[in-house]
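Hi R.,

Here's the chain you asked about this morning:
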Amino acid sequence: MPVEVEEVELRPLGPIDVLIRVTAANACVTDAMFMGLGASAEHPLPFPLPMPQIMGHGAVGVVEAVGEGVRWTRTGDRVVATGNPLCRTCWYCSQGRPDQCVGIVLSGPVLGRTADGAEVFPNANIGGYAEHAIVPEIHVTPVETEVPDDELALLADGLGGGLGGALLVSPVDFGSNVAVFGCGACGLGYVQGARLRGAERIFAVDPIESRRQLAVELGATDALDPSAGDVVETILGATPDRGGMYPRGVEYAFEASGDERAIEQAFAVTRSAGHVVLASVPWNLAASVSLPAVPLAIFGKTIHSCQWGHINIVRDLARLIRLLERGEVRAGPLVGGHVRLDELEPALNRVAARETMSAVVTPTP
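And the predicted structure, written out as tokens:
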């Protein structure tokens, strides 16, 4: 779908809404997929999105106004807005699973209207590719930190999902073996999280040499090109024999490649009683995967989905920001440049072509 920059007359704030002046939002590969760019052009969305839509499912900014029912956010707060909310009242939040909160939506309610009267919708209740966003307070976290906006924008998106995967979804054990399929922002979050947890060996798998090199700089011990050989056999052959029904492989396999075949590979390299963590949205959004029935049934492997790392924005976001402040996690090398709103479409095309890992949109100074 084409990207256009237009004026939108925003609706009045609702009682639990927050008006944010957006200072940074990551041009995410998932948005490129939803917009039919790159390889996803051959695979239309299997679900409808109301149009026109302001994309951008994470943002950083400053609060300019709040609704009368807002409880935790104040005008002037610097905030991070994330696709994962914390409503505090639904069944999933009560079970400690905000990654499935009923407040998660692909598209929020009407945000406003264009000059010709067309209704405009915010993606994921955020709509971060804009100068201003109206966001329900359940998606918003005030922050006090010197971490730059562009790095926080990466944390609100793929980097946070990868860190959460390795630190929260299936925390890596000290001395374990880990494989990471896909070394974009999310995959490099996996790498850094696994390093922080004391993994002994981290295999980073990606076809792009610069991403493999960056993975090693950030903590991977081995970098593998999936186009240069059978990565499953390589990883199985490089890991110790523990005995049992599936004796070799890693204890933790993390996948964020955008390729459904890598999900099958991640399962194949995981030893008995290991963990497979899946965060990838494949370029073919209607894709299926095939896993062998007997190993699936009896080898004791656990498969985890990883919607933005299961991050609880009240409990976890501040702790992740502290990791950035102390330099224990590096977000700067993942920032692939800065663009204005009128440069968004070519930036998303570069992301879709994997020419850059990210591009941070800075709508306002």
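DSSP finds eleven helices and 17 strands in the chain.

Let me know if you need anything else.
M.
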